[in-house]
Amino acid sequence: MKRRKVVVAAGFCLSFFLGTLFNLLSVPAFEHQQLGKQQQQQQQLEASLEPTTAAATSGHALLRSLRQQIRARLREALRYGPFPERGARPPLERRRLMDLQRAQEEEREEREHGSAPRLGCSSVDAASDVRFVGSGYTKAVYRAALNGSFAVALKSVDFGGHDMEECVRKYGSAGDCYRLASVKLVKEMALMERLQHPNILKLYGYCYQDSNDIKDTVTAITELGSPLEMIQLLQTPWEERFRICLSLMRLLHYLTHSPLGSLTLLDFRPRQFVLVDGELKVTDLDDASVEETPCSSSSDCLLEFPARNFTLQCSNGHCQGINEKRNLYNAYRFFFTYLLPHSAPTALRPLLDKIVNSTGELLWGTDETLAHLEKALDIYRSGQYLMNDTQMHKTEYKRVVDASIPGENYRCWPSYQHDGCMLSVYDVREAIGVCESHVQCRAFVLGNQSTWTGHQLVLFKTGSTSMTSAKGKLTYVKLGS
After folding, report:
1. How far apart are CA 3 and CA 240, in angstroms?
2. EC number(s) of the enzyme (predicted)?
């Protein structure tokens, strides 16, 4: 158990800031009248970071620089939520009793309102089947099972990560380096709590506890997702790739109009996202920012990318829409250009090409881009993309009720089934068209499986000699085959 605690939550004391910052998790919304209190707390936080006698070594100047970085991160993190006024930090034992009492009260309220209880340290202690998932510059992620079946992700500062190792090598203070890194995790937790959206990973709870004489190590307990593998995504059916692009655009539209203002993802890469039941969700928010670039003229508003640059307008001392535009172009270069148009239905390709080109040129904002993607979804979901299909099917098919064909598979691309040809269709007419376009196809089977758009999954077969009875399934066999 001790080993599990070490790997999921390690580090040094977050001091007064952590106790203060976790109050965010119970506050529903930002209130501007509390800005004065936040400024007062910020001064208290900065005062708590003054070097101690033990820390005042020959590297005093370096440590001062490091603590300045910690203060800067604290100031930035404090922007994302109100922090109620609070007195001196209580002793650890008393604080734990207070947390336990508050957790019991929250659990009772959540039970009365029918909502899921927030997870905490007891959940981390009782977790089983803890497995390493991956790590980045700052954090390590572990998969764990709660109550034997409920899977969650545990996030903690990675002591072996790039940020910690480089910081310790340069400054020689593991404690201060941990404080610097842990602020990013706490900021991410605050944003997950503030930004409630289906395409943002859910925060189930958190835990701060002692481990191996290290006080207040912090662990975030979040929804578990699957890492994005772009090579695999390129081989998935178009409908699933379209879902990822639509999910991303819904997220970016929300970030443009978020309660915090227009928010940009400064570290925008596929590895910052996960898939949860086919939906794309952002998991890393520690590099998110609401800062709008200040400017005195449009020449100050240069938006730079590896392939090209854009110059935006300077309006009221800030670069107009720079956060929104940065997100949009990153969506284009990392997702849309690869996932959106390829193997799409023929009738949808002009609209999808227009979406790709417009985001690549930053001609639209998130409102327009999302509206066009929703339009493409409506056309696909309603089957309108088939209305212009005037092809006459020359082959006749025999319809067999409550029958299936267990074998006689062949492979096609892209398929929902690895060892067969399983595709989604709107209706039987589209299934017949697919079968006639495949040289191997002599029959197809419709079951009761459907996709997220309501399209039916169909298995295409090379023949029907192995046909068997199967309740609820419908088989079509080419006549004369």
Report:
1. 39
2. 2.7.10.2
Is the separation of the CB atoms in 258 and 323 below 8 Å?
Answer: no
Contact 182, 173 (CB under 8 A): no
| Tokens encoding 113 | 């309102």
Contact residues for 42 (Cβ-Cβ < 8 A; gap 6+) = 74, 75, 78
Q: Token digits for 213?
A: 């004489």
Q: Which of 75-79, 124-128, 187-191, 431-435 has the lowest mean pLDDT?
A: 75-79
Q: How far apart, in whole angstroms, are the C-alpha atoms of residue 155 and residue 403?
A: 49
How far is the CA of 320 from the CAs of 79, 105, 288, 296, 469, in angstroms?
21, 45, 18, 12, 64
CA distance 208 to 433: 59
- What is the mean predicted confidence (pLDDT) over 81-106? 41
What does the alpha-carbon distance between residue 63 and residue 434 come to, in Å, rounded to a whole number?
Answer: 67
Q: Backbone phi, then psi, for 475, in 5-degree steps?
A: -115, 140
Query: How would you label 107-139 residue by residue, b for 16+ Cβ within 10 Å and e otherwise?
Result: eeeeeeeeeeebbbbebbeebeebeebebbbbb
Domains of the chain by residue range: 2-222, 226-386, 397-478
Angle made by CA atoms 273, 321, 306, in degrees to the nearest 5: 60
**CA–CA separation, 423 and 451 (whole Å):** 10
Over residues 213-267, the pLDDT tens digits come to 556 778 999 999 999 988 889 999 999 999 999 999 999 999 999 999 999 999 9
Structure tokens at 43: 């001064």
Q: Which CATH architecture has domain 226-386?
A: Orthogonal Bundle (1.10)
Q: What is the DSSP letter of 464?
A: -
> SS3 for 130?
strand
Residue 317 has pLDDT above 50, yes or no: yes
For the 2-222 domain, the top CATH level (class) is alpha beta
Query: In terms of CATH architecture, what is 397-478?
Result: 3-Layer(bba) Sandwich (3.50)
Residues that are catalytic:
267
Give backbone dihedrals phi and psi of 74, rounded to 5 degrees, phi first.
-65, -45
